[in-house]
């Protein structure tokens, strides 16, 4: 018997989230069907975390054990032949039989993409939250600093289990400006919110995004956000919960237990490489350098991250392909 760790990328637009359901199309059901079709086995699959209906993933980690032995890269390629176009195994690795994708995860990173436009968006509508009017990114960045640390985040989400704690540790929280040029003419401004934590409450990242966008639009002072985190407000204001389609599960870290080699990329188009303004999201996930990045943009393992003091500019998919 062998235990495998998969890293999945999927476009959540047509999925009812990660978790298996009796009815409705989910990522877990889709992956299980692919495994069963390929191997004849129906292993229990465990993911690092769940994603909501409509939310996307670039580095979802899934563990399972098979009675049959597979060379990891062959398993990856064979599963991709059975998966639909909106889900892809980015890499596969053999891991210790005790590996648990959820319990052993030490840090999880989520990103939220928000773009500002005065009209509806035809292309990015499924991959970013489109809001009207400008955003004060500096105000959002300052407010995001209040999220860092160990806090009771009960105002921003609920525990996965009824008796679970709502205390979480946020290691990093940043807000970076983004600029997208569509067909070389229209500039779309926005912000990319990135949060790394030991774990997330249900709805926590979407609540963070809603609160920070409210700060950026001048509808909520940063002090109010700080008071929510400190639980100083007995009658907490109703937070705007950002829509799921702007949420991108980004990566999971296992520290010394990472194990195995997950450097192989899928030999097919990325599941999220379908939108003009969001093409850069997939390029980030696959570790490709972005076109026309301006300034010192290579931060840690993110080749297209915004430099904290600069800006970045991304061409449309049409221009990238040209």
Would you kindly provide a written description of the structure presented here, covering whatever features stand out?
Helix 1 packs across helix 2 and helix 3 (137-144) crosses helix 4 (204-216). The chain has 322 residues and is α+β, with helices and mostly antiparallel strands. The chain folds into two domains: 2-104, Pseudouridine synthase I, catalytic domain, N-terminal subdomain (Alpha-Beta Plaits); 107-249 and 289-321, Pseudouridine synthase I, catalytic domain, C-terminal subdomain (Alpha-Beta Plaits). The chain contains seven helices and eleven strands. The longest helix is centred in the first third of the chain and has 13 residues, at 27-39. Strands 1, 2, 3, 4, 5, 6, 7, 8, 9, 10 and 11 form an eleven-stranded mixed sheet that branches. The protein is globular.
**H/E series:** EHEEHEEEHEEEHHEHEH
Tell me which CATH architecture of the largest domain applies here. 2-Layer Sandwich
Strand content: 25-35%
- The tally of structural domains comes to 2
Q: What CATH first level of the largest domain would be assigned? A: Alpha Beta
The chain-level structural class is alpha+beta
Total DSSP helices: 7
Low-confidence runs of at least 5 consecutive residues: 263-269, 273-322
CATH homology-level superfamily of the largest domain? Pseudouridine synthase I, catalytic domain, C-terminal subdomain
Shape: globular
Share of residues in helices: 10-25%
Rg: 20 Å
What's the main sheet like?
A: 11 strands, mixed
Topology-level CATH name of the largest domain: Alpha-Beta Plaits
CA distance, first residue to last residue: 47 Å
Averaged pLDDT: 80
Number of strands: 11
């Amino acid at each position: 018997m062998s235990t495998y760790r998969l890293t999945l990328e999927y476009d959540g637009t047509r999925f009812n989230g990660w978790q298996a359901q009796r009815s409705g199309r989910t990522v877990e059901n889709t992956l299980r069907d692919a495994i069963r079709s390929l191997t004849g086995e129906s292993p229990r699959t465990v993911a690092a975390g769940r994603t909501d209906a409509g939310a996307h993933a670039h580095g979802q980690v899934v563990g399972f054990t098979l009675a049959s032995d597979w060379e990891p890269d062959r398993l990856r390629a064979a599963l991709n032949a059975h998966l639909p176009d909106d889900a892809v195994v980015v890499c596969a690795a053999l891991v210790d039989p005790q590996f648990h994708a959820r319990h052993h995860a030490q840090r999880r990173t989520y990103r939220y993409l928000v773009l500002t436009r005065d009209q509806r968006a035809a292309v990015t509508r499924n991959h970013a939250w489109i809001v009207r009017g400008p955003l004060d990114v500096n105000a959002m960045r300052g407010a995001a600093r209040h999220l860092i640390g160990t806090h009771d985040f009960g105002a921003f989400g609920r525990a996965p289990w009824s008796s679970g704690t709502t205390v979480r540790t946020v290691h990093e929280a940043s807000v970076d400006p983004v600029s997208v040029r569509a067909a070389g003419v229209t500039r779309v401004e926005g912000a990319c919110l990135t949060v790394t934590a030991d774990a997330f409450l249900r709805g926590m990242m979407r609540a963070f995004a809603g609160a920070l966008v409210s700060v950026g639009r001048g509808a909520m002072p940063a002090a109010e956000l700080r008071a929510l985190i400190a639980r100083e407000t007995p009658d907490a204001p109703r937070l705007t919960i950002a829509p799921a389609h702007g949420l991108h599960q980004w990566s999971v870290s296992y520290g010394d237990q990472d194990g195995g080699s997950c450097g192989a990329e899928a030999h097919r188009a990325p599941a999220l490489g379908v939108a003009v303004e969001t093409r850069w999201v997939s390029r980030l996930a696959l570790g490709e350098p972005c076109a026309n990045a301006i300034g010192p943009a290579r931060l840690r393992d993110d080749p297209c991250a915004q430099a904290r003091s600069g800006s970045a500019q991304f061409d449309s998919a049409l221009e990238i392909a040209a």
